[in-house]
Amino acid sequence: MKFLKYSLLLFILFSSTNLLYAQKDGVQIISPKEFNRIAETNPRAVVIDVRTRKEFKKGHIIYALLAEKSENLYHIIDTTGTDMLYLLYCKDGHRSVDAAKMLFKKYQITSYSLQGGLDYWKELDMKVVK
Q1: Helical packing angle, 2-25 and 94-107, nearest 10°
Q2: Residue 111, C-beta contacts closer than 8 angstroms, at least 6 positions apart
Q3: Dihedral angle computed from the Cα positions of residues 94, 78, 23 and 87, in that order, rounded to the nearest 10 degrees
Q4: Average pLDDT of the residues in 3-28
Q5: What predicted TM-score, i.e. pTM, was given to this entire model?
Q6: Residue 46 neighbours by CB under 8 Å, 6+ apart
Q7: What is the rounded average pLDDT of the residues 38-45?
Q8: pLDDT mean over 32-54
């Protein structure tokens, strides 16, 4: 019972920390299943791969746009508009968080980053295209 109370307390603390982080930096980290659900069902969703072109060619999430450099990322936002839902990913989740922070700083929009990146996506046997 004591373990359950501590686990619940840690869960609440972790959840509220993530919420504050997302509000401050404009990035919300979401699970691969949630990422996929949004990408497949929301017509405003734009999937952006922030890895290198070489990484992208080895495999990427379906319909992903490549934004290898910040200029490419900004061009995508300028072209599609700030009212879209931006789903960002990279290899392990770090570059996409940085990219989302850049978007927040420049456009004041919140973006979603794939938890664990494409590595975790593949680990869950989720679809990748070439």
Answers
A1: 50
A2: 26, 27, 28, 86, 87, 88, 99, 100, 103, 104
A3: -50
A4: 52
A5: 0.82
A6: 65, 76, 80, 84, 85, 86, 87
A7: 97
A8: 98
